Design the sequence.
């Protein structure tokens, strides 16, 4: 949540990884670097190959969530089991997104 408070409202920018704007994978990469000192790959497709798959009911805060959104790869970070933060093309860095049954 500290990372969310730091970055919320930052606009969307394709290829972005800083205060000027983030795309989804740039946001996830920056949060993991700042919060956990982990260097993740740059793209959502490459980030999706990390870790292990878990069931929806096993999601915990900090987990990277990968899914297809309107035909495109997308990643975000779980805040709690059914809510995550991400960089939205329409709203920039935002939370309140809900993990749906179809995700």
Sequence:
């Amino acid at each position: 949540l500290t990372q969310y408070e730091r970055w919320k409202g930052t606009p969307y920018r394709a290829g972005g990884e800083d205060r000027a704007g983030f795309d989804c994978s740039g946001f996830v990469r920056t949060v993991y670097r700042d919060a956990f000192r982990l260097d993740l790959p740059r793209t959502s497709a490459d980030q999706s190959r990390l870790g292990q798959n878990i069931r929806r009911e096993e999601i915990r805060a900090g987990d990277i969530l990968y899914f297809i959104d309107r035909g495109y790869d997308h990643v975000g970070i779980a805040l709690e089991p059914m809510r995550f933060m991400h960089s939205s093309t329409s709203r920039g860095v935002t939370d309140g997104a809900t993990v749906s049954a179809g995700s």
